[in-house]
Design brief:
Helix content is 75%, strand content 1%. The protein is mostly helical. The relative contact order is 0.13.
Length: 542
């Protein structure tokens, strides 16, 4: 009887592993196929590519769009770095009020969709936004004083402050673990703090600075929603032009050309990240974390005050304005039945997406962990970066071409599969990093007790990384809820997730109603984190 139980358990384990591998293969195909099918229209004989000046997509127009794409991504990254790197220092080295609150902001770029950022900026900095209304009432003005939002300046400020928490978190994590002996030696030799930073510290945290900068650059390079809403005449990115080619002009061949240009540029940037990480890892040392001290110098207090003021004005106030402005329309929006259908569509899709993402990320992470030859392979560094080279618009475009060739209709499960590809890099990093923390001696102990690797997976590795598995699930759930790009591109019949519902309200200038939906979207997207916090709170009393 006991042997039957053991056999049944073994069969169940192998069936689970087989299903996981099958789903992983499915998601790999979901990444590769859209890329392949997005190129197919180039070889079509039905259309010809005309780059002449008479065509809307002339060489000059494409070149200007590419230049603007790179320019807005560069300056957005500069703003994120100017705020994020100094805040990374204060987080890792100093104690100050609300420090834990600023640390918690690092989750916002992953949990809060860009659509909400755009709505928040419109509500606070827009022509009829809270700030303009306040200034006009105080100074009795007839004209709008603040008009930067619908311009290049508005785009880079919104994107820069939206992404600064990512830079802050990456730099603070590395900064808190660098070897302080070189800096102490420079201090003994009489170097002042500024000289110590530029001669010693900056080289030690160069990996964090470069990787976070290029990651932010890639996010801004693929900017879509913010540019679509804020972009003035002449302010267009390659991503927006691909969308216009697919949905408005139906010029699929041009969309393919633009997609290749965009993907090639993004791939080149990812290769630069790998080269920089490889070079800097040779000189990377780690030690015990710094002991944070209170701020005593007046210069540091002033500098921190300036940073907090900028964060408050350009990061926190827009979100607070979004919340306050939504109160008046809550009743009207909540009485609309379409809202609840959208919430249902979002939750179903997000649950499928999060489940697929976690299975895919866990399968890949365990594969690298259990195979010694691939444990230090370059592939483990490339894998999280590969999905970042393909934008959601290109993915959606590839799905459209695939569906047209095989007469298929996209549905919510199709959307979940491709959203899983988008969420995979974050889930893989979370799970893989925690698996790496498990001592390598555990592998030898597992072999002594059993040669069956499936037992090690289910009895040792998964229980040890269950917290990171849940975090990966929660982040993937939030990313799926906040994604408005893929639903907008695919236009699935009788399917309107909350993100798309909110975007359509904003596009029709129903900003107050869209703000209400944005708040609901934020709550739904963060529901996994809310439930976890509620569970941990209850455990204290049980």
């Amino acid at each position: 009887m006991q042997n039957n139980k053991i056999n049944f358990g073994g069969i169940l384990r192998y069936v689970s592993i087989s299903i996981a591998i099958l789903l992983a293969f499915l998601l790999i195909c979901a990444f590769v196929l859209p890329l392949i099918f997005s190129i197919i229209p180039i070889f079509s004989q039905n259309e010809t590519i005309n780059f002449g000046s008479s065509n809307i997509y002339s060489f000059k127009y494409i070149f200007n769009a590419l230049v603007f794409t790179i320019k807005q991504a560069f300056f957005s990254t500069v703003i994120a770095m100017l705020i994020g790197v100094p805040m990374g220092f204060f987080i890792s080295h100093r104690e100050f009020p609300l420090k834990k609150f600023f640390v918690s902001l690092s989750a916002i770029p992953f949990c809060v969709p860009t659509l909400l950022v755009a709505l928040a900026y419109v509500q606070f900095f827009g022509m009829n936004g809270s700030l303009n209304q306040f200034i006009k009432s105080v100074f009795n003005l007839n004209t709008t004083p603040i008009t930067f939002l619908y311009s290049f300046t508005g785009i880079i400020i919104a994107q820069g402050f939206y992404n600064f928490p990512l830079v802050m978190k990456t730099c603070s994590d590395v900064w808190s673990k660098i070897d302080s002996r070189q800096e102490n030696a420079a201090l003994i030799l009489g170097a002042n703090p500024i000289r110590r930073f530029f001669s010693v510290t900056i080289y030690q945290i160069s990996t964090a600075i470069c990787s976070s900068a290029i990651t932010v650059f890639l996010y801004c390079f693929f900017s879509f929603i913010i540019v679509l809403l804020f972009g003035a005449i002449g302010c267009t990115t390659i991503e927006v032009e691909i969308y216009q080619s697919v949905k408005n002009t139906l010029n699929y061949k041009m969309a393919s050309v633009l997609g290749i240009i965009e993907t090639f540029t993004a791939t080149l940037l990812c290769l630069i990240v790998l080269i920089l990480e490889k070079k800097s890892s040779k000189n990377r040392n780690s030690c015990n974390e710094f002991i944070c001290v209170k701020i005593k110098k007046l210069s540091e207090k002033v500098f921190l005050s300036i940073l907090i003021t900028l964060i408050f004005v350009f990061f926190l106030m827009p979100f607070l304005s979004l919340i306050f402005s939504s109160f008046a329309k809550f009743g009207d929006v909540l009485s609309n039945k379409n809202l609840y259908l959208s919430i249902k569509d979002s939750i179903i899709t997000a649950l499928c997406t999060a489940t697929l993402t976690v299975i895919f990320a866990l399968t890949c992470s365990l594969f690298f962990r259990l195979n010694k030859k691939s444990r230090n392979s370059i592939l483990i560094k490339i894998l999280p970066l590969v999905p970042l080279t393909i934008s959601s618009v290109i993915t959606g475009y590839g799905i459209i071409i695939f569906s047209q060739l095989f007469n298929l209709e996209p549905n919510f499960f199709t959307l979940s599969i491709f959203q899983s590809v988008v969420a995979f890099p974050f889930a893989f990093r979370l799970i893989s990093n925690n698996l790496d923390k498990i001592s390598l001696q555990i592998d030898d102990v597992c072999k002594i007790f059993s040669e069956d690797k499936s037992k090690s997976i289910f009895w040792v590795y998964i229980p040890n990384v269950k917290e990171s598995i849940f975090s990966a699930f929660a982040f993937s759930f939030a990313i799926s809820c906040g994604d408005a790009t893929l639903p907008l591109i695919l236009s699935i019949q009788n399917f309107t997730p909350l993100s798309l519902y909110t975007f359509r309200l904003a596009s029709s200038y129903q900003f107050n109603s869209s703000c209400v939906c944005g708040i609901i979207l934020m709550i739904v997207g963060s529901s996994c984190f809310i439930l976890k916090g509620f569970y941990q709170f209850l455990r204290k009393f049980l």
